[in-house]
Amino acid sequence: MIPWLSRCRHFLVPPSLCLGGLLAFLGLEPKKKAKEDPVVHTIKQGILALQRGEYKKAEQMLHLALKMSQERLDTQAETYCFDVMADIALANNELEKAEKLFLEVMRRLLSTGTSQDDDAIVEISAKLANIYSKRRDDSKAEQGYQFCINTQREKISGLIGNLQDASLNAAEENSLTLLGMCMAMYAKHFIDRGKYREARDLLTQSLEVARKVFGETHPQTLVIRNDLALISTMLKDYKESIRIFEELVGSDAVSESEDLAVFMCNLGASYLANGNIGKAQEYCGKAKEIAKKQNRWVALNDAEGCLADIRQRREQMAKK
């Protein structure tokens, strides 16, 4: 794999399974105009720390929230604390710890009557499949992803085939979004194993979901299109990858995007793979400038890697 190509990123977590939705599901959502519940407030602080990559602080906040939940004998709040603690462990690559916590959350939900095809159970199953994928336990990972996708497909079977024209209620939109997330996660599993055709099929379906749920110009939709273009590059379908990347960098929705440098660099890399050194130099150079302005250090490093390879390619051609 070309080293500076952006890695496939995960689909967004479904809105109803984010903080507000699951807190409501657990009966913890604060009432309007009422003082915010201290457990909810502490959990939110932990989630914000998690989003900033401050894992130690996030874990401290969730342990505090868990203690508060246990002191008031609130088992629903305890369950949610365990769920967020599992997310923290997974983000910090503590796979065994994350697995144990997710299994405990699933056990608790099932014991209170949550059905096996509930969206919350499916989301946890997808995260467990991700853990098994990271461990290279492909049998468990693929079994998990297939369960998630098949369960969600069955749930919205009446919408499949006429997705773009369908009118969705809140439950259907959530289930559909979760389906898209699971397909993108499964695609990432295949990408990591060099199975690009399987990944492309899944991401193509995930893109259809993203367009329906988020719209054509939403960042998540753009990221999936980026990943489809990357897969086309891996499959040596350079014409298709260049077409997608040119559409992305020429889009008004991307002009102010924090991912613009990534898209530019990937376009340059695709041109380089196709032998067009001039275009590769142009776009990787632009990517470097944009990354500097936006303080996007990973994208800057990728652009510099692309430019270094271009220099090496030119030197090799000069020797011939």
> How widely separated are the two ends?
26 Å
Mean pLDDT: 87
Shape: globular
- Segments where pLDDT lies below 50 for 5+ residues? 1-22
User: How many DSSP E strands?
Assistant: 0
Q: Strand pairing plus helix content: what structural class?
A: mainly alpha
The proportion of strand residues reads under 5%
Reading the helices and strands in chain order gives: HHHHHHHHHHHHHH
What is the CATH topology descriptor of the domain at 236-313? Answer: Serine Threonine Protein Phosphatase 5, Tetratricopeptide repeat
Keywords: Mitochondrion, Repeat, Signal, TPR repeat, Transit peptide
Signal peptide: 1-34
Pfam families: TPR_12, TPR_8
Protein name: Tetratricopeptide repeat protein 19
Describe this structure in words.
The chain is mainly alpha-helical and 320 residues long. It has a domain at 236-313: Serine Threonine Protein Phosphatase 5, Tetratricopeptide repeat, CATH 1.25.40. The chain contains 14 helices and no strands. Mean pLDDT is 87; it is low at 1-22. Residues 1-34 form the signal peptide. It is found in: Mitochondrion. Keywords: Mitochondrion, Repeat, Signal, TPR repeat, Transit peptide. Belongs to the TTC19 family. Its main location: mitochondrion.
